[in-house]
TrEMBL record:
Similarity remark: Belongs to the NAD(P)H dehydrogenase (quinone) family.
Domain of life from the UniProt record: Bacteria
Gene3D superfamilies (UniProt xref): 3.40.50.360
Name under which the protein is recorded: NAD(P)H dehydrogenase
Any single GO CC term annotated in Swiss-Prot or TrEMBL for this entry: cytosol
Organism encoding this protein: Acetobacter aceti
Length: 264
């Protein structure tokens, strides 16, 4: 297996860094190839601006989608972006690792998505018609590849439970799992989340790192989140609403887009 880990933490000698080391060690022990994009170490440019589109005429108004599409088609994107796209093409499993800051990923990782996910590469692909609305949500360039999140959070697991004050962790991570990973076609595995990390002692770290190692050992066999594919008949095209009667009992909002797991 070829695994790309996109790592977003400003301190390599941190809990996140130690978990990254544990994940890499376990993956390599299993015979997998591993590449790491350490965004802070790379001094990754997070903000999209005119410099991302070298061929954009100086007097033309910047429209990011169309400029991205044009540069991608002409192989004109910047070298740093093209290098990360090549890593995504190379990998058959992609892991995004980050601390949960203000209920989201760090800005540098969001900036990696904004710049690397060019139009024509991660979105804006496929046929748009009365029966299809592009290759997305389970289809697209990343179809056939697996992806997952490794997330650290300072709060307790109860804080992120169904009745927890912070909101359920599956809801908080839905925009990333469904919108950033599933949208361009990844098969999305359940996230690995470590809680109460600000007070993690050595004994607890051994437990958490052991759990992470187990997840790395089972990357190929872990059942994915059963998100509904856009073009498999569950949605009304082109309005893209879930058809009536397909709801999993009790499901509302984000959970509507998760189907009943298929029995083995």
């Amino acid at each position: 297996m070829k695994v790309l880990i996109v790592f977003a933490h400003p301190e390599r000698h941190s809990l996140n860094g130690a978990l990254l080391d544990a994940a890499i060690a376990e993956l390599q022990a299993q015979g997998h190839e591993v590449k790491v994009s350490d965004l802070y170490a790379m001094h990754w440019k997070a903000a999209v601006d005119r410099s991302d589109f070298p061929d954009l005429p100086s007097g033309e108004r910047l429209k990011v989608g169309s400029a991205s599409s044009r540069e991608f088609a002409a192989n004109g994107l910047t070298d740093d972006v093209k290098a990360e796209q090549e890593k995504l093409r190379w990998a058959d499993t992609v892991i995004l690792q980050f601390p949960l800051w203000w209920f989201a990923m760090p800005a540098i990782l969001k900036g990696w998505i904004d710049r690397v996910y060019a139009c024509g590469f991660a979105y804006g692909v496929g046929e748009h018609s009365d029966s299809r609305w592009g290759d997305r949500y389970g289809e697209g360039v990343m179809a056939g590849k697996r992806a997952m999140l490794i997330v650290t959070a300072g709060g307790w697991p109860e804080h992120y439970s169904e009745r927890g004050i912070n909101g359920q962790i599956d809801d908080l991570l839905f925009p990333i799992n469904h919108g950033i990973l599933f949208y361009p076609g990844f098969t999305v595995l359940p996230p690995f989340v470590a809680y109460r990390v600000d007070r993690l002692d050595e004994a607890r770290f051994e437990i958490v790192s052991g759990q992470l190692r187990e997840r790395m050992r089972t990357l190929a066999t872990t059942a994915p989140i059963p998100y509904r594919k856009q073009n498999d008949g569950d949605y009304q095209i082109p309005i893209m609403e879930l058809k009536t009667g397909l709801e999993t009992p009790g499901a509302v909002r984000f959970a509507l887009h998760v189907a009943e797991p298929k029995s083995s």
